[in-house]
Every structure is written in structure tokens, then in C-alpha cells.
Specification:
Layout lengths: L8 H20 L5 H8 L6 E4 L7 E5 L4 E7 L2 E6 L11 E3 L2 E3 L6 E3 L5 E3 L11 E4 L2 E4 L1
Antiparallel strand pairs: 1-10, 2-3, 3-4, 5-6, 6-7, 7-8, 9-10
């Protein structure tokens, strides 16, 4: 009686990888996620980050997942900047006292223009584009 050859390691790894990829693609292709539908229905730019009431005057709010800090230096004036410090690319963690603050090495950035208020950061935070429509703030 002839025996069948055992599968090679490469064959097993390929089969397992293909099955995992198929499962991941099937999950990603679902149209049943209401959050996805809400994002797709947004008009005029990206999804809504916040309402204007969410951003304190003289302060700001960090949106880590979107990689942005939104500030309101004066009432009705909204600005946005990258959430990564220009010194070592650490994410900033607070907006207090008129500055956007990095916990890694103490850098501070002005909420008006992202300029360096306290080193070691070598340059300002990069500006991000946002739009304010009514009371909604969106990434542009």
C-alpha cells in the first residue's frame, strides 16, 4: 500500500495564512457597521471630530485616533495641529494654560499657531486643515 506524503511545513503555513486572510477580508467587507455608514454619509470633508462646544476657549482637545489637536485660542477661532511633538514624535497629552504639552521631554506649543513655547522641540507643530460648519468641526 502506498502512503501519501506528509504535507510540508510551507504547505501548512500557506494554508493557514490563506484561511486567516479569507476570514479577515470577509469581516472587513461587512456593510452592517453603522459607524461606517455614518462616516460615509458625512458631507463636505471628513467625519465630524467635535462640536464647537467641545473645545474650550483658551484650550483645546486632543483627538489621538485622528492624529490632531483642535484648539480655540479665542471665542469662535478654531485651529488644528498634529498631535506629534516635533522633538521625538511623542504624542502630546494635554492642552492647558495656553499650550499644547508633550510629556516626554517637556516641550510646549502655543495654541494659537503651534509655535514652540518651551524646548527641546526644534520646530512648531504642523498645522492641520479643519472646517467649521455650524457647530461641527471636521477634518478637511
Amino acid at each position: 500500500m502506498a502512503s501519501r506524503p506528509d504535507p510540508t511545513r510551507r504547505t501548512v503555513v500557506t494554508a493557514v495564512g490563506a484561511a486567516g486572510l479569507a476570514a479577515a477580508l470577509a469581516a472587513c467587507g461587512s456593510d452592517d457597521d453603522p459607524a461606517d455608514e455614518a462616516s460615509e454619509k458625512e458631507e463636505g470633508g471628513g467625519a465630524v471630530l467635535a462640536t464647537t462646544a467641545d473645545i474650550p476657549v483658551g484650550g483645546g482637545k486632543i483627538f489621538k485616533d485622528e492624529g490632531v489637536v483642535v484648539t480655540q485660542p479665542t471665542k469662535g477661532q478654531f485651529k488644528a495641529f498634529s498631535h506629534l511633538c516635533t522633538h521625538k514624535q511623542c504624542p502630546v497629552t494635554s492642552v492647558e494654560g495656553g499650550t499644547i504639552n508633550c510629556p516626554c521631554h517637556g516641550s510646549k506649543f502655543d495654541i494659537n499657531d503651534g509655535s514652540v513655547k518651551q524646548k527641546p522641540a526644534p520646530k512648531p507643530l504642523s498645522a492641520k486643515e479643519i472646517t467649521v460648519e455650524g457647530d461641527s468641526i471636521k477634518l478637511a
